[in-house]
Amino acid sequence: MAQFYGNEQIQHTLHQMLLRDRAPHGFLFYGETGLGKKTLAKQFLAELLCTGTEKPCGSCKSCKMLADGVHPDVRFVEHSGKRNGFSVDTVREVCVDLASPPNEGNAKCYVFGDCDAMDTRTQNLLLKAVEEPPAYGYFIFTATSPASLLPTVRSRIVSLAVSPVTEQECCAALAERGFSPEDAAEAVAAFHGNIGQCLNFLENMPIREVVGLTKTAINSIINKNEYALLQTVSVLGKERERTFLFLNLFDRCIRDAIVWKHDPCAAGIGCDAAGSKKLAERLSDSAGQAMHCAVDSTYGAMEANVNLPLALAAFCADCMDA
Ligand SMILES: [Zn+2]
To answer: If you placed Cys at 6, which of 165, 178, 195, 266 could pair as Cys (CB 3.0 to 4.6 Å)?
Structure first.
């Protein structure tokens, strides 16, 4: 089973809850994509369901079934209906299923992963089950932000923030998966202590390419070369996913430049430390803010389905005017 790294405080808290038989029946694990929230859910459930002495033992029937993804009392609820949401039918089906007792042990668990797009209606449908689950019922939600869940749902469960690990821990985790120190260092330079995003970077060529485009874009800003910036973003074409990633990475680099102007020792979150440091030497606070706003309005234009190349051309102009 995939290991969950770092976040000792959360791991300790969950372990203590289980040891004392005081585990709440609902959790929200939140934090940015790639931090291992679903892995943490699996680790918690392994300990909850394990029948061995040292929990999770990894060798009892329950641990094995969970690791193989075939535990009959654990359901990672699949997305359905609208994009990345959960359909009314799916939630109704979960509520019906919850009414029948567990097959194996004393617990029946439902993991709703990536709940950022879970709509109000489905959350309300689930509310009663989350409020008053049977003694064996457990719910785990994961999302990037706690605000993804309605306050009524959130008030019934325990919310825990998952953080990135240290860069050393991240390198160690990547080494355990067989990546060379050079590859690990390159990934960590771009995505710091976010193991999932580092893995994504190492395993997906398109992500590497977008990181490269971001660095080129930052360089164009440093050189005040609008033509080069336009050429760089034109590579994104009409691909929304890649454009979202580019804007996110670009925004982080700008954030680093602004922060480093005032505190050169602060921790960076962007993928281009060298570029952001250079930019920090010449970027005014107001120009940095203007570029951040340019990113925001491009997100807005994308939400409104504005023609992507046009939105990106406006983005370039805004950045150059900043
Ligand atoms: Zn076990």
So the answer is: 165
φ/ψ (deg, to 5) at 73: -105, 10
Q: Indicate if the pLDDT at residue 2 is higher than 90.
A: no
Distance between Cα 72 and ligand 1 center (Å): 15
Q: Considering the chain, what percentage of its residues have pLDDT values greater than 90? A: 94
Please give the biggest Cα pair distance in the chain.
65
Going 69 to 73 to 74 to 75, the CA torsion angle's sign is positive
Cα of 78 from ligand 1 centre, angstroms? 25
Handedness of CA 128, 134, 135, 141 (dihedral sign): negative
CATH of domain 205-321: 1.20.272
Alpha helices in 56-177 (DSSP H): 61-67, 88-99, 120-131, 151-154, 167-176
Domain 8-161, CATH: 3.40.50.300
Nearest-5° Cα angle at 225, 222 to 226 = 120
Q: Are the CB atoms for 27 and 10 separated by under 8 Å? A: no
Query: What's the complex ipTM?
Result: 0.99
Q: Which residues surround ligand 1, an ion (CB under 5 A)?
A: 50, 52, 56-57, 60, 63
17 C-alpha vs ligand 1 centroid, how far in Å?
17
Residue 48 CA to ligand 1 center (angstroms) comes to 9
Q: Where are the domains of the chain?
A: 8-161, 166-203, 205-321
